[in-house]
Specification:
By secondary structure, the protein is α/β, with parallel strands linked by helices. It has a single domain (5-219), classed as Rossmann fold (3-Layer(aba) Sandwich). It is built from six helices and ten strands. Helix 5 (130-143) packs across helix 6. The chain starts with 12 loop residues before the first helix and ends with a strand.
């Protein structure tokens, strides 16, 4: 049984195929949100960026041109989705000279051969059980430079609401989250505990203005 549908579902393929200029709302708004967040966090031309769950390079297609002396690594569970991402770069005329894309079901970071300055996982933990989140944190921690962080969104709920389905709204669409199946929700205490297990510190960043997800910052202190 698959943990979520993304191993087989080619993410955003239909929208991308039917929108040659890549100007549909979900793409543009979420791309700008992630891009602006990373730039505000200090990402610059010489940064090494790891995009966990990079999909068809929504963030990458905007960020990669900025990394004139840096590097972009993208990890995704679905090779077909990564192929679409390569096509997106080609369509936009974006050079892939400093890009490494990794297909992996278990957050394999072996191909990352330099310390990562910024890692981001937008709408990834919301589709993972806690064991998979732990594995992601443990692996990403291996490649973060000291002081660097993985910035990851998740559905945040209080402890008294955790054990039952909860309702969230995104782009006007209401949907449920669950304690034991995709899409998952978690408490702050759960995020803090799994961070500590992976040797990372944990805090929330209220500066990420996502419609329904909360930004957690997992920092490698040493």
């Amino acid at each position: 049984m698959l943990e979520n549908d993304y191993e087989t579902d080619v993410f955003l393929s239909g929208a991308i195929a039917n929108t040659p200029d890549l100007q549909f709302r979900d793409w543009v708004e979420l791309q700008a949100l992630q891009y602006d967040y990373l730039r505000a966090a200090g990402a610059s031309a010489d940064s090494v960026v790891l995009d966990v769950g990079c999909g068809p390079l929504r963030l990458g297609s905007r960020l990669i041109p900025d990394l004139t002396a840096g590097w972009y690594y993208g990890i995704d569970i679905n090779g077909e989705t990564l192929a679409i991402g390569r096509d997106v770069l080609d369509r936009l005329g974006v050079s892939a000279d400093r890009v490494t894309l990794i297909e992996s079901t278990d957050f394999d970071v072996a191909a990352i051969d330099r310390p990562v300055d910024f890692a981001i996982a937008n709408s990834v933990f919301s589709h993972l059980n806690l064991n998979s989140i732990a594995r992601c944190l443990l692996n990403v921690a291996e490649v973060l430079r000291p002081g660097a962080a993985l910035h990851a969104t998740y559905f945040d709920v209080s402890l008294d609401r955790w054990n039952s389905p909860q309702s969230f709204v995104n782009f006007g669409r209401e949907f449920p989250t669950y304690p034991r199946r995709d899409p998952y929700h978690y408490t702050q205490a759960m995020m803090a505990d799994v961070a500590a297990w992976a040797g990372l510190s944990f805090r929330l960043d209220p500066g990420y203005a996502h419609q329904c997800q909360t930004m957690a910052v997992f920092t490698r202190e040493v």
